[in-house]
C-alpha cells in the first residue's frame, strides 16, 4: 500500500498542497487534472526526484520520504520514455539490473521474461531510434518492470501515440496489470484511459486533491462544480 500524508512542495510555478492519498495494492489509480495542477510534481515526489517541504510518503508500511530514489523500489515511465539511444533494447532493459550488480545469468533470464511478457523479444538487438512509439513504450515498461518494483508510476505514457496505438497500449497495460497484479499510478488527460484502465481516480486542481473515489462514483457524483465541468458532466 502507498500512503501519502499531508504532502506539500513548491517547484517554481508548480506546487502540491497538503495532499493525502491512499493507494491500495493492485489498484490501477489514475490522477486527472488540468495542465499545471501539479500531477507530475506529485508523481516525481513519490518517486524521490523531489523532496517535499512537509508530509510523509509510506510504501508497504515503511516511510520513504527521505529515501534515495534508487532504494524506493518504485518504477517510473515518462511520456517520452527516456530510453538511452546508444544502447540496444536489451541493454536498455538491463541497465537497472547492472546498476544493482545482478549476475549476468540472472539478467539474461529477467530480460527474456520481460521481453516475452511485453512481446518485444524480436526487438532486443535493435536501437530505440529504429522503433515505433508503441515499441519504445514497451521497452520503457520492460526496463521499469524488470526491477520488480512495488509500484509503477506512469507520467502520460501514451500522450505521444496515435489513436490506434493508444488503444492497443491500453489493452496491453490492462493485460500486464492483471497478469502480474502490479499497483499502477498513472496521470493522464485522456478520459478513455480512465474508463479502460482505472478502478480508482483522483482529481487535482491547483496543487490540491479535490476528489478521490471509485471511477464510477466520481463520475456519477462529482464533489463540486469544478469536478463536474472538468469531467464534462452537465446538469
Explain how this protein is built:
By secondary structure, the chain is an alpha/beta fold. Helix content is 36%, strand content 26%. It contains eight helices and ten strands. The chain has helices at residues 39-47, 89-99, 104-117, 133-145, 163-180, 191-197, 215-220, 225-230, and strands at residues 2-11, 14-23, 28-32, 54-59, 62-63, 74-77, 151-155, 183-187, 200-205, 208-214. The strands form two sheets. It has a six-stranded mixed sheet with strand order 6-7-8-3-9-10, with helices on both faces. It has a four-stranded antiparallel sheet with strand order 2-1-4-5, covered by helices on one side. Helix 2 (89-99) packs across helix 3. The chain is globular, with a radius of gyration of 18 Å. The model has no long low-confidence stretch (mean pLDDT 92).
Supply database-style keywords.
235 residues, alpha/beta, 6-stranded mixed β-sheet, 4-stranded antiparallel β-sheet, 8 helices, globular
Summarize the structure.
The protein is α/β, with parallel strands linked by helices and 235 residues long.
Q: How much of the residues is beta strand, in percent?
A: 25-35%
Q: Between the first and last Cα atoms, what is the distance in angstroms? A: 36 Å
Report the strand count: 10
What is the 3D shape?
Answer: globular
What do the pLDDT scores average to? 92
Give the helix proportion (percent range).
25-40%
Largest sheet: 6 strands, mixed
Radius of gyration: 18 Å
**Uncertain residue segments:** none
Order of the strands making up the biggest sheet: 6-7-8-3-9-10
Provide a count of the helices. Answer: 8
String of helices and strands: EEEHEEEHHHEHEHEEHH
Amino acid at each position: 500500500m502507498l500512503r501519502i500524508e499531508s504532502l506539500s512542495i513548491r517547484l517554481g510555478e508548480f506546487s502540491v498542497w497538503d495532499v493525502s492519498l491512499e493507494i491500495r495494492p493492485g489498484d490501477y489509480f489514475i490522477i486527472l487534472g488540468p495542465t499545471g495542477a501539479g500531477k507530475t510534481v506529485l508523481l516525481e515526489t513519490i518517486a524521490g526526484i523531489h523532496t517535499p517541504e512537509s508530509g510523509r510518503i509510506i510504501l508497504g508500511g515503511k516511510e520513504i520520504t527521505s529515501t534515495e530514489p534508487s532504494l524506493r523500489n518504485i518504477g517510473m515511465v515518462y511520456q517520452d520514455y527516456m530510453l538511452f539511444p546508444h544502447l540496444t533494447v536489451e541493454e536498455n532493459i538491463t541497465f537497472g539490473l547492472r546498476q544493482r550488480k545482478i549476475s549476468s545469468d540472472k539478467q539474461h533470464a529477467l530480460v527474456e521474461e520481460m521481453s516475452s511478457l511485453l512481446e518485444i523479444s524480436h526487438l532486443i538487438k535493435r536501437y530505440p531510434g529504429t522503433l515505433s512509439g508503441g515499441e519504445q513504450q514497451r521497452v520503457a515498461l520492460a526496463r521499469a518492470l524488470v526491477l520488480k518494483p512495488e509500484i509503477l508510476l506512469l507520467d502520460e505514457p501514451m500522450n505521444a501515440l496515435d489513436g490506434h496505438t493508444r488503444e492497443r497500449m491500453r489493452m496491453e497495460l490492462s493485460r500486464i496489470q492483471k497478469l502480474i497484479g502490479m499497483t499502477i499510478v498513472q496521470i493522464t488527460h485522456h478520459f478513455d484511459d480512465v474508463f479502460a484502465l482505472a478502478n480508482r481516480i483522483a482529481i487535482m486542481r491547483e496543487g490540491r486533491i479535490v476528489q478521490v473515489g471509485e471511477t464510477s462514483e466520481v463520475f456519477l457524483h462529482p464533489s463540486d462544480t469544478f469536478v463536474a465541468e472538468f469531467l464534462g458532466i452537465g446538469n
